[in-house]
Request: fold
Amino acid sequence: MPVIAYNYQIAPGEEHLSPLCFARLFGPRRTVTVRALVDSGATYTIFDTATAADVGIVLPPKVNDSIRFGRRIMAGRRVEVEMALRAFRWRAEVIFVQDWDYPYFLLGRSGVFNQFSEIAFVTAGDTPRVEFRYETLAKTRESPMAS
Reply:
């Protein structure tokens, strides 16, 4: 089974290692690579509205969703986007929010975790890492047609 692995990193302004990775967000204008926390406690994937504008993603004019992050409730605009981790590319719903104050975005269960066979947080040993395990694309494309 193919694996995409990212070693834990220390986020800017933090002291401890975290399961951070580099996700690519594709838009009509350009593609950007962003730092994202792989968060099994997050239901949704969260990016900021400035990143959507940067890549040319058109957001709904009105708020169509909200998220709770800590004690804050943030208004959001949910849209389907194309994203990737290394060569693994897929479409996912992302909620874009204003005033995101963290040095990374969030990859949550909905839209990200369900794209992979397994996501493992490997903390034993000298190199803690997060692993995204998946079936090959050929198998994924063939399996719905086999019946």
Observations:
- The first strand starts at residue 3 and ends at 7.
- DSSP finds two helices and twelve strands in the chain.
- Helices lie at 49-55, 137-142.
- The chain has one domain: 3-142.
